[in-house]
Amino acid sequence: MPAKVAINGYGTIGKRVADAVEVQDDMDVMGVAKMKPNYEARMALERGYALYATTKDALPKFEKAGLKVRGTLDDLLKEVELVVDCTPEESGYKPAYEKAGVKAIWQGGEEHSLTNFSFNAAVNYTEALGRSWVRVPSCNTTGLIRTLYPLDAHFGIAKALAVMVRRATDPPDSKKGPINAIEPELEMPSHHGPDVQSVLPKVNIHTIALKVPTTIMHVHAVSVELKRATTAKDVLDVWRRIPRIKFFRGAEGVASTAQIMEVARDLSRSRSDLYEIAVWEDGVHVVGNTLYYFQAVHQESDVVPENIDAIRAMLQVEKDGKASMTKTDASLGIGA
Ligand code: NAD
Fold it and tell me: Ligand 1 center to residue 233 CA distance, Å?
């Protein structure tokens, strides 16, 4: 029997997680809960998802908009074993999930303390087995963990610094900025460093972040002091064993995030998403014990495969992390 999953919040992350769940053979989307009867609610229905209004108060709004709903979030929770919460940060549904007796996954907008367990499939799948509450860290944090974890395992990380150039907002969001500005995050370290440590507690990392007026990707400039000397080739060989890292070459004309997303469009995946972390192969340099590299993160989609693996681990549909990751990756075209 496929695992029964609900999606609460059907925006940038929710709609992608829903579609990724639907292409697995061991889990099903039983319904999606929406707050507003907007175009995304209509699209959810058109894609064949059962639609639920988040609250009772919202029900008449859906009826007025001519959108057929099956009930409220509370009704949906009765049908499922697990809910993937893709609502904005601090929306506060934990008591509702507790009351319904369902497990829940939250996204990176939430604090680690909400679940006391932050997940990355390569790092701590086994620790997630059977858990009730799991958080998948943010797109940036997931991106840093993907490349830093293998480095720590193979060479040891003495110290890392990541300077993160962040997209201002997502492509469909026309309300937020900056429009013509660069906005440094004045907090030091930015929240990403401690967030990486919520999954990799022993990694000594400092992060600095600034927002720029772009919508398509984040870029990280990373310098890592390794515990032993190596070469750029050895580092690339280690990363090449990881399917959720994809390589691009500036020398081949992929010199910016614009061209990375053009390659993503050429891959013809769902929504042109790039689930992998993009590393510029010819931007990897080693000087002494220090490694320098650039990576780019498709913020709308890199956390999607992690959500699928988290579902499998929490519901113990698959006890082996590598097997889950292989299955997820094959279903989404990762590594192809
Ligand atoms: P979004 O705004 O695109 O979608 C949020 C969805 O929740 C929408 O359907 C919205 O109608 C609904 N919603 C809004 N307020 C609600 C409420 N109070 N109760 C129930 N539903 C409500 O947001 P998103 O970008 O998908 O972000 C969701 C989570 O994923 C956040 O924790 C965010 O930090 C995290 N995240 C976002 C990105 C990204 O780049 N967009 C990347 C990784 C993680």
Answer: 39
Query: Is residue 38 within 8 Å of 54, Cβ to Cβ?
Result: no
- 83: nearest Cα among 35, 25, 30, 125: 30
Please indicate whether residue 107, judged by its CB atom, sits closer than 6 Å to ligand 1. yes
Told to judge if 86 belongs to the known catalytic residues of this protein, a careful annotator would answer: no
Name the CATH topology of 3-136+303-332.
Rossmann fold (3.40.50)
Residues 6+ apart with CB under 8 A from 90: 109, 110
> One digit per residue, pLDDT tens: the chain, 336 residues?
999 999 999 999 999 999 999 999 999 999 999 999 999 999 999 999 999 999 999 999 999 999 999 999 999 999 999 999 999 999 999 999 999 999 999 999 999 999 999 999 999 999 999 999 999 999 999 999 999 999 999 999 999 999 999 999 999 998 888 889 999 999 999 999 999 999 999 999 999 999 999 999 999 999 999 999 999 999 999 999 999 999 999 999 999 999 999 999 999 999 999 999 999 999 999 999 999 999 999 999 999 999 999 999 999 999 999 999 999 999 999 987
pTM: 0.97
Domain-wise residue ranges, the chain:
3-136+303-332, 139-297
Residue 7 CA to ligand 1 centre (angstroms): 11
Considering the four listed CATH numbers 1.10.287.130, 3.90.1720.10, 3.30.360.10, 1.10.238.20, the one that applies to the domain covering 139-297 is 3.30.360.10
Residue 137 is given by DSSP the state P
Establish whether the linkage from the previous residue to 189 is cis, with ω within 30° of 0.
yes
